[in-house]
Amino acid sequence: MTDAPTELIDSHCHLPLIEGDTGAVIERARAAGVSHMLCVCVDLESFAGVTEVAAQHACVSATVGVHPNTDGSNREPTVAELVALAATPEIVAIGETGLDYFRSEGDLTWQRTRFRTHIRAAREAGRPLVIHCRDAAADLITILREERAVDAGGVMHCFVEDWDTAQAAMELGFYISISGIVTFRNAAALRDVAARVPLERLLVETDAPWLAPVPQRGKQNEPAFVSHTAAFLAELRGEALADLARATTDNYRRLFHPA
User: Fold this and answer.
1) How many CA atoms lie within 13 A of 173 on its CB side?
2) Around 4, how many Cα atoms within 13 Å sit in the side-chain half-sphere?
3) Element (DSSP H or E) covering residue 37
4) pLDDT per position as a tens digit, 27-77
5) 8 A C-beta contact, residue 223 and residue 29
6) Is the pTM higher than 0.85?
7) In this predicted model, what pLDDT tens digit does every residue of 200-250 receive, in sequence order?
8) Rounded distance, CA 205 to CA 36, Å?
9) At what angle do helices 188-196 and 163-171 cross, to 10 degrees?
10) What residues contact 89, with CB distance under 8 A and at least 6 apart?
11) 135/234 Cα distance (integer angstroms)
């Protein structure tokens, strides 16, 4: 492995949900070579807090969206509202949105309807999508195609699906983002996918405060730890860490165009 990378980007984190001083979390990330972080919104009630963090720190951008598992106690988004909020200067994407059949049960028509709302808003706002998918790959790809999500593009965040799903998503213009899960002992199938994703379609993330990578497993995750995932990925793929860091950083900026 060659010299440490000059720049990494954490393409998905939840800064307001990380316990401790947010400024200190960001400083630790900067010290670890993380030049930028995407702070992802999970419901409209927390949108103000997400944008506040991004407004206060030039190295942070943000998104607007409602997570697929957020229940009916939270405000349901409309296309018009998402488009309006996406015009906020700090907002670079629509999401986190998608489908999750692992955590939600019963008739999930509401979840699919919410997903379609986000895709339509992304297309109208000219913003990419941040996609969450768990145990719902077939329906998710079908909806992406039906709603012409290729016009918006985006990223499959914290990817844990199979190679066929990765290929289908990339054919629709989506990037594949790998989290610390790839370092887990039981993640052989994901490692196979991560090794095959073309470098020009790859992103790295933490999904902090969850899913801390080895060797930080069991701790609260934070953006600084994306360096461990990047190093693991580079070794897995047989690439220089600096090359992987450069490519994933370029990919992020190509997709999100952060200020």
Assistant:
1) 14
2) 10
3) strand 34-39
4) 999 999 999 999 999 999 999 999 999 999 999 999 999 999 997 778 999
5) yes
6) yes
7) 999 999 999 999 999 999 999 999 999 999 999 999 999 999 999 999 999
8) 11
9) 30
10) 55, 259
11) 27
Three-state SS for 55?
A: helix
Q: Output the pLDDT for position 104.
A: 85
Tokens found for residue 231: 């190093």
Tokens of 40: 């992802």
Question: Residue 34: beta bridge partners?
Answer: 8
Helix (H, G, I), strand (E, B), or coil: what is residue 97?
strand
Please name the residue that has the structure tokens 């902090």: 208
Q: Please state, for a pLDDT cut of 70, what percent of the chain lies above it.
A: 97
For residue 45, the one-letter residue type is E
- The residue count of the chain comes to 259
Q: Which residues in 240-251 are b (16+ Cβ under 10 Å) and which e?
A: ebbebbbbbbeb
DSSP label of 223: G
Q: Which residue's structure tokens are 């497993």?
A: 217
| DSSP secondary structure code for residue 79 in this structure | H
